[in-house]
Predict the structure.
Amino acid sequence: MGKERIIIVGAGPAGCAAAVQCARLGVKPLLLDSSGKAGGLVANAFLVENYPGLEKPLTGEVLAGRLAEHLARFDVEITAQTVSRVEPDPGGWIVRTAGDGFRARCVILATGTVPRSLSIPGERDLVSRVLFYEVRDLLAAMPSPKKIIVVGGGESSFDSSLRAANAGASVSILVRSDRVRVRGRLREMVTGHPEISVELNTRLIALKKVDGGVAATVISADCESLRLADALLAAVGRKSTASLIVSSPDPLSLTHAPGLFICGDARSDGLGQVGIAVGDGLAAAALAVQRAIPEKVK
């Protein structure tokens, strides 16, 4: 098990920004990602329109492709590896994978978030069949859905609903509270869309697979009813992956431990903003290079 100077785990916006910055500062990092592809969760996005400098709004998939091109310009490749644990090692860290793993002086953890479950009976049996947590996975399984139910009242549910509607689906957003947690342009785009409806005070209590899709049992205005759809997308929040990989206090910090940096959504616990993730990645890379080879930084 040789020793790398810097290992970056995760190739979303934070990890890609960190990798490019490391390369610019003279250190070629080892970039690991379970998918082997650039982009991470940004590939889910309907449109990215608040990142400074864009000539026009970009879909998440297009931006993911540009991240891959940016890595290629700096000759940074992505190694397809799933990291299970990052542990202290004399003089650095051990990055555990399905193989032997890797040693490094510094590790930048940019692994993003995982979705929160619905916590309803039978949920696990329906995952990737008629229940999905990422809109890109849903559309990969069903490229032309007719009817989609989205559960959640945050930005992720609204953004995903726009992408599903853009694929030709009629979308119902179920929100268990009496208000949504979305403001401004995104809210206006959803509430003004002819194929998207938002139902407040509507709680999902059960799911089951039926011929042609999924049956969702909901309670609204103290009345129980059944909703049928091709599939259901759960967008009820996300949580950082960092605590699954390292011993993490709460809240997480960029400079988590000497030689270990946590950035992007893994640190902020799911803000889902490309600009914040990129800034985190740049800062983590500068600190990691300074620690790995301090004589190279003026």
